[in-house]
């Protein structure tokens, strides 16, 4: 029996998740109803929203991936 109600399709023909990061949000000691699985990924284009993720052009995503150092415990501020 599964303990979740929805899932994200990561292998997609539009390649929105070709490059991406998972934000460590509501993982440990998760709170029901507080949301989960925030991704940084490639966007559809200007003016196009997401369903709760953070999206950017592919070139910016690659720039971020090259710059980011997970060993330094990076934080993201969503305001």
Layout of SSEs?
Layout: E1 20-23, E2 38-42, E3 54-56, H1 58-67
Parallel strand pairs: 2-3
Antiparallel strand pairs: 1-2
Summarize the structure.
By secondary structure, the protein is of the alpha+beta class. It has 1 helix and 3 strands.
Q: How would you explain this protein's 3D organization?
A:
The protein is of the alpha+beta class and 79 residues long. Helices cover 13% and strands 15% of the residues. The protein has one helix and three strands. A three-stranded mixed sheet has the order 1-2-3.
Mean of residue pLDDT values: 88
Sheet with the most strands, sense and barrel status: 3 strands, mixed
Helices and strands, in order, run as EEEH
- Tell me the distance between the termini: 36 Å
Count all strands and give the number.
3
Structural class: alpha+beta
Which stretches are low in confidence, meaning pLDDT under 50 for 5 or more residues running? none
Continuous helix count: 1
Strand arrangement, largest sheet? 1-2-3
Oligomer: single chain
Portion of residues within helices? 10-25%
Report the sheet-strand fraction: 15-25%
Shape label:
globular
Radius of gyration: 14 Å
Question: What are the key terms here?
Answer:
79 residues; alpha+beta; three-stranded mixed β-sheet; 1 helix; globular
